[in-house]
Design a protein that fits this description.
mainly alpha; Growth Hormone, Chain: A
C-alpha cells in the first residue's frame, strides 16, 4: 500500500514540477521574446541586439543570484522559495504590459532574474531528488521536459495574444497564467518530501532501506575542488550558449528565410515539442545506461543540427535541423541535474547545482546577445551558428574524459556518492 501511495504521490509531484517549469523564465522569458519584442521594436525603434539584451540581462542576473537561491532552498525549503518567486514573476510580466521606455523594459527583466530567481528549475529539481532515486533520471527527464513543453505552447499562446490584444496584452496574459495557474498549483499540490506524507523515495516500504536519504554528499567547497565539477560546467555552458541563443532568435531567423510569422511560430513550437520529447527520452535512458554515453550522443546531435543550420539549405532541412536541436536541448539542464546528484550527492544538492547552473546561466545570458550582435553586424546568423559546432565538439571531448560516478547498482537501495 505504501509503495502504491508513493507511486501516485511521486508521479503527481513530477507532473506539478513539469507544469511549473513550463511557466518558468526559460520558456516564458525566451520563447516569447521576439513574438513580443518584434512589435515592441517596431513601436519604439529598438534593434534586435537591444531586445536580446533584456533576456541576456535577465539570465545574467539569474546566474549571479542562483547560488544564494540554492542555499536558501537547502535551508528554508523549495516551496518557501517558489511561492513568492512565482508571484513576483507574474507581476513582472503584468507590469511589462505598461512600459513606455527602454529602461523600464530592462529593469523588469532584471527583476525577473533577481527577486524572481526562485521560479527556475533548482527548487523543482531539489524536490524530485528527494522523491526519487532508482527512477530519478526518468523523474528529472519528465519534469525537465516542462521547458520543452513551454517552448512548445508559449509561442502559440503568445502569437494568439499578440494578434488579438497586441504586445501589451501578450505580456498581461502570460502574467495571468503564472498567477492563476502556476501559483495555486504549487501552493496546494506540491509536497517537498515523501516523508512529510509518511512515504519514502521510490515507494520503499521500510525506514531501513531509506535511512538518512539525503544525509550524505559533498559540500560546495569540496565539490569545486573536483575536476568533474569544472568539466560539467564547461561542457554544459558551451551547449547552453548556442542553443539558448538560437531559441531567442528562432522566429526572426525563420522570417529572414522567407517564412511568414504565423508559420514561424508553429516551427518554433515544433522545436519546443521536440525538446519535450528529447527530455523524456533522456530521462528514460539515463536510468538504464551510463549517463556519460547518453550525453555523448546528444552532444553529437547538437553539432549536426548546428552544422545544417549554418548552410544554405531548403526550409525542410532547416526544420529537420531545428527538431534535432530541440531533441538535444534536453541535455543541458536535466543531464546536469542528474549528474550533479550522482557525482556530489544530495546533502548540499541545491547549493552545488545552483552554483553550476549559475555558470551555465551566464552562457545562456550571453547567447541571445551574441546572436543579436552578430546579426546586426553581418546581416546573418551564419557565423555564430558555425561557432557552435566546435563548442559541441569540446563538450563531446569533455564528456569522454568524465570518470564513472560512484552510484550503487540501478534498482538497488537509495544511492549515495
Amino acid at each position: 500500500m505504501t509503495e502504491q501511495r508513493t507511486f501516485w504521490r511521486g508521479w503527481s509531484t513530477v507532473v506539478v514540477c513539469l507544469l511549473g517549469i513550463s511557466t518558468g523564465p526559460a520558456a516564458f522569458g525566451l520563447a516569447s521574446l521576439f513574438l513580443l519584442g518584434g512589435p515592441i521594436g517596431e513601436e519604439f525603434g529598438w534593434s534586435r541586439t537591444a531586445i536580446s539584451a533584456a533576456v541576456s540581462v535577465m539570465m545574467l542576473c539569474t546566474a549571479l543570484s542562483l547560488p544564494f537561491m540554492g542555499r536558501l532552498v537547502d535551508r528554508c525549503g523549495a516551496k518557501q522559495v517558489l511561492v513568492p518567486s512565482i508571484i513576483i514573476f507574474g507581476l513582472c510580466f503584468i507590469a511589462a504590459s505598461m512600459i513606455d521606455s527602454y529602461w523600464q523594459f530592462i529593469a523588469l527583466y532584471v527583476a525577473m532574474g533577481t527577486i524572481a530567481v526562485g521560479t527556475n528549475s533548482v527548487p523543482y529539481m531539489r524536490v524530485l531528488t528527494a522523491w526519487f532515486d532508482r527512477r530519478r533520471g526518468l523523474a528529472i527527464g519528465i519534469a525537465g521536459s516542462g521547458t520543452g513543453l513551454g517552448f512548445g505552447y508559449v509561442p502559440l499562446v503568445t502569437e494568439q495574444l499578440v494578434s488579438h490584444f497586441g504586445w501589451r496584452g501578450g505580456y498581461f496574459g502570460l502574467g495571468l497564467i503564472m498567477l492563476l495557474f502556476t501559483l495555486p498549483m504549487v501552493l496546494f499540490l506540491l509536497h517537498e518530501k515523501p516523508q512529510s506524507l509518511g512515504l519514502h523515495p521510490d515507494g520503499a516500504a521500510s525506514d531501513a532501506v531509506v535511512a538518512h536519504p539525503v544525509a550524505r554528499g559533498d559540500s560546495l567547497s569540496e565539490a569545486i575542488q573536483r575536476r568533474d565539477f569544472w568539466s560539467l560546467i564547461t561542457m554544459f555552458s558551451g551547449l547552453a550558449f548556442v542553443l539558448y541563443g538560437l531559441i531567442a532568435h528562432m522566429v526572426p531567423m525563420l522570417q529572414d528565410r522567407g517564412v511568414p510569422v504565423s508559420q514561424a511560430s508553429w516551427l518554433a513550437s515544433g522545436f519546443g515539442w521536440s525538446a519535450f520529447g528529447g527530455r523524456l527520452l533522456i530521462g528514460f535512458l539515463v536510468d538504464r545506461y551510463d549517463a556519460r554515453h547518453i550525453a555523448f550522443l546528444f552532444f553529437l546531435l547538437s553539432a549536426v543540427g548546428l552544422a545544417l543550420l549554418s548552410l544554405q539549405m531548403p526550409i525542410w532541412v532547416f526544420t529537420v535541423a531545428a527538431i534535432i536541436l530541440g531533441v538535444s536541448l534536453g541535455a543541458e539542464v536535466d543531464m546536469l541535474a542528474y549528474l550533479t546528484s550522482r557525482y556530489f550527492g544530495l546533502k548540499h544538492f541545491a547549493q552545488i547545482f545552483g552554483a553550476m547552473f549559475s555558470a551555465v546561466m551566464v552562457a545562456m545570458s550571453l547567447g541571445p546577445l551574441a546572436f543579436g550582435a552578430v546579426y546586426d553586424s553581418t546581416g546573418s546568423y551564419r557565423a555564430i551558428l558555425v561557432l557552435g559546432v566546435p563548442l559541441c565538439v569540446l563538450a563531446i571531448v569533455l564528456v569522454l574524459l568524465l570518470r564513472p560516478y560512484g552510484e550503487r547498482a540501478r534498482g538497488g537501495p537509495v544511492s549515495v556518492t
